[in-house]
Sequence to fold (62 residues):
Amino acid sequence: MTPLAWKYALFVWGYALVWFLINDLVKVEVYRLMHLGTASHQRHLARLDASLHPAAAAKATA
Fold:
């Protein structure tokens, strides 16, 4: 088998790295979307809303 030239080897490594990063971003987004609607996510949103709008949260609990 003929050895692969360095420029082609570097291209293959770069190509693999780029697709690795793209696939990882897609995976993280899919995991985030799958987590939406769960009870823990709803609690997180409520805490976030209370920290962003403390007056509205105090009025709602009163």
Q: What stands out?
A: Residues 42 and 48 are 10 Å apart (CA to CA).
